[in-house]
Amino acid sequence: MNERGDISPTLQHWFADGPTTMPDRVINVVADRIARQPQRRGWRRRWERAPTVNVGLASAVVVGLLLVALVAAALIGGSPPFNLSPVRPAVPPVASAAPIPSQAPSATSSAAVGPGLILVEVANLRMPNELRYIAPDKRALPFLPDFGGHQRAAAWRPDGQRLAFAGRPDGHPDQWMDLYETRPDGTSLTLLSTDCELPECVDESDPAYSPDGSKIVAVRQADLRDGTPTRVVLVILDLATGESTEIPETSYPYDTHDIGHPRWSPDGTRIAFHVVEGPPTKRRLLIFPEPTSPGPSSIYVVGNDGSGLRQLTPDGLAAGDPDWSPGGSTIVFGSTPPHLWLYGQDQSDWAIRSIRPDGSHLQVVVPPDVAITPSWTAAGDRILFATTASNVQAIRTSAPDGSDVEDVANFHSTEVLMYPVQQPTP
User: Which domains does the chain have, with CATH numbers?
Assistant: First the structure.
């Protein structure tokens, strides 16, 4: 899909309801995009010769006309939208091997993080999301250009030799995502969700490897009814057999709850994840946020056999995206999962916090600075996280206590960078 085809339904909805419903951040991004469109020379000359008019009124009229033109162009000449019919293809959408990129990713190496490829997930107005890697020159470059489509939630295998992610490739005939695995250079792309079939299994995302690399825990949307899943649940996939096993204790109604970002404890006995009440209904489409923000979000811990499910963080904290410290003594986490807001939600109190697995010693690690999506560096001695404020996005690292904050890379961009993960190295 091109940019115009992606945003036209949303803009039509906003125009129908009135311009006041459009989030400020989206207005800024759209206006910036319009400003960067090439203009005919004659327009500028005629404008310079035009009689003086009220500047505010003229600006409003021009912007309004340009937005209407953008929608019209999308409706007339844009690419057709995805077919949202919930029918899974009979043949896996991606072959067992992908073409080798023209230039294999090269890892960032600096005093802040050491060796190991860093991947980030990027969200922007062009939707869908994309996985990129931080190049040595600090640019964020596409990691899977041949996959295209929608890419999110990357996770490294503990030996650093494979990478799992959730995706929907170009040409996919429905809106649902599957799990895939690839090598660090983006080759040998393999479909993992071979045991996910409609209507019992609808969508799988948010993968994480077990400490020995033999299994993956993920989030499954299940039991399709009238085109919509009715449950969300954690599922464990055995990579040797391809068989999957749900953890029934983590099953929640799809229309009232969302779960995400499951992570194994270092000893492999427990899984931390977040539970969000009242999530947006379009949370997997990730087009634009809905008028209402998600409800309370909390960190939970459960045994890998479903035993001992308990809420770890207190109510009202808006906690999400947990990750265990290498020794298992601490869980770091961010605020409301960015996948559920993207644009428009208040971010002033977003911080990186930590808590012990027994629920004690809750503390702020990185003070509120729109800090999100923490993980541990490959060496396990520092916290890697993203910050997003205005048009400046940054990937940063800090000591476990939040001191010694250093930039890994920063970007002047309206794109949102999140979920940095670093490749484990020998």
Answer: 3-77 (no CATH), 118-422 (2.120.10.30)
